[in-house]
Amino acid sequence: MPSTIVLVADQQELHAPLTRRLEDQSHSVFVVKDIPEALLYLRDPACTASVVVFHMVLRRQQDAFTLTEICSFRPYLQVILLADKARGTVFDGQTPHANIRILHRSIGPQELLHVVQDAVGAADAQMGSKEEDSEVDLDAEADENGPTVFTTPFLMRVGMADVPVLLHGETGVGKEVMARRLCAYSPRANKPFLKLNCAALPSELVESELFGYEKGAFTGAAVDKPGKFEIAQGGTILLDEIGDMDIRLQAKLLQVLQDGEVQPLGSRKTVKLNVRVLAATHRDLRRAIEVGTFREDLYYRLNVVNIIIPPLRERRDEIIPLAEKLLKRHMRPGMVEPVLSEPFKELMLQYDWPGNVRELENLMRRLLVYQSEKMIFGDLERAIEHSRTKARPVLPVAVETAEPVAAAAPQVAPAIASITDLAEVARQAEAKLLLEALEHTHWNRRQAAARLNLDYKAFLYKLQKLGLVGKKDKTTVPQTV
Ligand SMILES: Nc1ncnc2c1ncn2[C@@H]1O[C@H](COP(=O)(O)OP(=O)(O)OP(=O)(O)O)[C@@H](O)[C@H]1O
């Protein structure tokens, strides 16, 4: 069975031959240049590696602790370490975890290949026994890496499909975790995975980050800079908070997706792209389309597969297992793992978790710091009391799902009456009118202004105010869409 193998090596001549031979056997090899980066990757919930080979000597005892900890929450993971002596000196006389093999650093390439193949077999055997269990009742499978409403076979199919995926869900539900997981199951698993948060930056910055620029393209562009699309070549890009992307930029993104090529700002060259696009949002994009703040054509481009991740309060059976997993994730070596008491678990099950898994994670981190439930018991009680007296947060409208398994997920409530602010309603209505006029006139602004019986300057001012055009950057407004 093809596996994902992490190879930790800082020298090309060490990892290149091994990578080639493993890739010849259809395995995906992910090369990491240093130990801290490798440990970080292995701790990531989206990591699906079954074998990790440290082609460098582990010297810090702290790293050995971390590795042991990773092995305990990733029971399939097989670890191969090279050491100065074929005995684990870094483990300071302690017996290493059963899945850790320590070899002498002078081992030859052929012998190392055999050990890696053997480790792949051992990981497969352990995963196989888990898969047999899951065949009995796939839906009930307790998947440690994501909401149990999505089975591993479903996610593998979507991951392998290499099509755009739109992820919907409230903040903190695990959209990024899901995106990383889809990537890990895809043929692009050992290629770059980049994320850009479209809401966190002003639109000009999002544009230059995504598409890159050439030296001199604008004030401050002192050197050429490739955009994320270019850096992610061969891999995957996650456009987080796509619902917050400026409408003008949406047009440009659409063009890039349609043409499969990108033109850095200020440049004449175009770069052919081979990047899988995943997008995530907590917004109701259907509504955004209605009010003219999201382009329908872009929506259909991104929405080949649509996954709605339900909020944590709609998958309460996952709260306790997730809490226990998050406690383990954040424990430092030598820490005593707090045992969650029954009354505390009961309280956790009553709470609605508006911040979803992120909020649960923060609570578990606090618990590890305080080492006492008592200190946060009252906070949780007050939060429950508060949520009883307040209205539920507004949720995104349920949208159709492309897969039967996804359709089985609890549907989220419609976002009725989410816009209570009159000024916002007026702003959105105005934006819709302006955009319609621009669409009709193929983005000829003079004609669009005339169509709306508006003075041209007043029209431009409105475009600016609504964020539909940059102050100086008129050239990037699409003339044809
Ligand atoms: N199934 C899971 N197992 C373990 N941790 C999880 C899981 N889902 C989410 N998390 C953790 O919860 C936090 C929030 O997850 P993530 O960033 O994926 O959510 P999000 O929906 O993308 O959030 P936002 O909308 O704010 O971008 C992260 O620290 C992540 O590691």
Automatic annotation (TrEMBL):
Transmembrane intervals: none
Source superkingdom: Bacteria
PROSITE patterns: SIGMA54_INTERACT_1 (PS00675), SIGMA54_INTERACT_2 (PS00676), SIGMA54_INTERACT_3 (PS00688), SIGMA54_INTERACT_4 (PS50045)
Keyword list, A-Z: ATP-binding, DNA-binding, Nucleotide-binding, Transcription, Transcription regulation
A Gene Ontology BP annotation from the UniProt entry: regulation of DNA-templated transcription
InterPro entries the record matches: AAA+_ATPase, AAA_lid_NorR, CheY-like_superfamily, Homeodomain-like_sf, HTH_Fis, P-loop_NTPase, Sigma_54_int, Sigma_54_int_dom_ATP-bd_1
Coiled-coil blocks: none
Protein's recorded name: Sigma-54-dependent Fis family transcriptional regulator
Originating organism: Silvibacterium dinghuense
